[in-house]
Amino acid sequence: MEMTIExxxxxxxxxxxxxxxxxxxxxxxxxxxxxxxxSNHLFNDESIIFGIAQDNxxxxxPENCRYDTCIGIPDSCMLKDSLVNEGSIAGGKYAxxxxxxxxxxxxxxxxxxxxxxxxxxxQLDGTRxxxxxxxxxxxxxxxxxxxxPLC
Length: 151
Fold this sequence. Notes:
This protein is of the alpha+beta class. The chain has helices at residues 26-39, 103-119, 136-140; strands spanning 2-8, 11-19, 48-53, 66-72, 85-89, 92-100, 131-135, 143-149. An eight-stranded antiparallel β-sheet has the order 1-6-8-7-3-4-2-5.
């Protein structure tokens, strides 16, 4: 698992929220968002899809866990569709873990990232969510990233 430190910009996003256990069902929401983005001419080779788990499954019942599938949108985009909500992702310092884009690799990464950050002396910024980042170029090469906010 490869780790880098990055200053991520803030993003304006359109998102679809799914409530239920984290896992394979999030793919449905991602496909729905990509379909919406394509039909609104917002999905191309430069697009970035984000996945944001809003709840800690150790503290929230699986059936109540919220997962937001998001896409960065330009300031000029006027959202008029009830399918998506508008939000933002705060910029700042992130540890970025490049991983294989498989369910197994993502699960393993979620277990390994916290000990790795601790070992390297980094502290999690609990005021910002951890973000899964899927750029088109990365996904086409079977990779994705987990971005962990740092103090």
